[in-house]
Amino acid sequence: MSNRTNRSELKRHSERGHYDRETIYRILDQGMICHVSFSLDGQPYVIPMAYARSGDGLILHGSPHSRLLQSIADGIPVCVAVTHLDGLVLARSTFHHSLNFRSVVAFGRARPITRPEEKQQALVELTEHLAPGRCAVARAATDAEVKATSVVRFEIEEASAKSRSGPPKDNPADMQLEVWAGVVPLRIERGEPVPAPDLKAGV
Amino acid sequence: MSNRTNRSELKRHSERGHYDRETIYRILDQGMICHVSFSLDGQPYVIPMAYARSGDGLILHGSPHSRLLQSIADGIPVCVAVTHLDGLVLARSTFHHSLNFRSVVAFGRARPITRPEEKQQALVELTEHLAPGRCAVARAATDAEVKATSVVRFEIEEASAKSRSGPPKDNPADMQLEVWAGVVPLRIERGEPVPAPDLKAGV
Fold it and tell me: Is residue B3 predicted with pLDDT exceeding 60?
């Protein structure tokens, strides 16, 4: 990750911007899905994908026939966003309603990971990021399965984080209105695990 | 929304694809943040934004100085994605681990909404989508506030929905492994509302 240039610099609400690795890593490490965008013949595409951060890169995977992976593995410019929604900000005025969030927008390029051991390792990182501990219990990928998976590494050249947190900011003139104001926190909740219908008895 | 063309047609897992308005609307209506992508001089950008669906379009807003809004309001091609993460799919093999999700990818163009009454109406739709009922209690936007907001409408030309649901699909040979398999449901949970620290007593 290098210094920032015009493309990653926050123009609006620059006080909400962060460019340090620690903040950027923390936001990336808390997400499971990123939005990958690229442009083909002037037509932009944006696709949600599972990912794991590995150093200054993101590991992405899919079918060898994936149009997305084939396109970005050519080394074209790619932009990736990861966003966490943290709360609804309810103000006394509709104008000051807002959302609390944390997001990272990263710019870079992708390259295919083709060496089988490197692919295997990247897939382990991906599984462990999404479902920590599963590689110790689930059957590891066979050579054929690794072969049947395309893996690319998106190398972050520059990135910025943006966030909003805390209560609404209303105009002084509105503070006396009889309107409830505050934040409704939002977070991703894990429900009770649902066993597969064909789960072997006793497992 | 017109018929689908090559850009919106699902190439992989086409059985997970949907192109009907009802499915697409339902996914869009359950989201609060979309990822808006566009390309400037071959450089793709993707930015998270609050939105509301209105007919076959999405209402987006921001500062009149927003680089994003200025760029897309020029009528360049835009692609927008909305994604809901529904579950972690834990299989007996690492290869068959997956995520349950619903997503929409929409292609189209944006145009600025400039007439004050139309802008005011679009902002009401946006607030009501994100925080239903708030327009009845919070102070309405003044003319100056409406003026200080840029609003664009992204018109969907074509869109596709994609989803995965249900249990893991393992190989028959793996069904006897002593590995727990199933789904950990994920959903966005609303926490206890946190009143603003300067909330007027008694509200």
Answer: no
Whether residue A93 and residue B145 make contact (CB cut-off 8 A), yes or no, is yes
Q: What is the pLDDT of residue A105?
A: 97
String of DSSP letters for A148-193: T-EEEEEEEEEEEEEEE-SS----GGGTTSS---EEEEEEEEE---
When pLDDT is averaged across residues B188-192 and rounded to a whole number, the result is 97
Q: Which helix (H) or strand (E) is B179 found in, with range?
A: none
Inter-chain residue contact A130 with B38, CB threshold 8 Å: no
Residues of A in contact with B174 (CB under 8 A): 139
pTM of the entire predicted model: 0.95
- Whether the Cβ atoms of residue A131 and residue B97 lie closer than 8 Å to each other: yes
Chain A contact for B139 (CB, 8 A cutoff): yes
> Smallest CA–CA separation between A167 and chain B, in Å?
5
Which ipTM was obtained for this model?
0.95
Which residues, in sequence order, are CB contacts of B148 under 8 Å at separation 6+?
B63, B64
Query: Contact B74/B154 with Cβ under 8 angstroms?
Result: no
Mutate to test the interface with A, among B94, B187, B198 (most CBs of A within 10 A): B94
Q: Which CATH architecture has domain A6-165?
A: Roll (2.30)
B-chain residues near A164 (CB < 8 A): none
Q: Does B62 touch chain A (CB under 8 A)?
A: yes
Q: Is A9 on the interface with B (CB under 8 A)?
A: no
Which residues in B lie closer than 8 A to residue A36 (C-beta atoms)?
Answer: 46
- Spatial contact of B45 and B80, defined as CB atoms under 8 Å apart: no
What CATH class is the domain B9-164? mainly beta
pLDDT band at residue A142 under the 50/70/90 scheme? very high
Q: Express each pLDDT in B70-92 by its tens digit.
A: 999 889 999 999 999 999 999 99
pLDDT of residue A137: 97
Q: Parse chain A into domains and list their residue ranges.
A: 6-165
Residue from B113, B89, B52 nearest B167 by CA: B89
Q: Read off the pLDDT of each residue in A164-174 and give the average, rounded to a whole number.
A: 97
Half-sphere exposure of A12 (CA within 13 A, CB side): 14
Residues composing chain B:
203
State CA A24 to chain mean position distance: 11
Three-state DSSP state, B52: strand
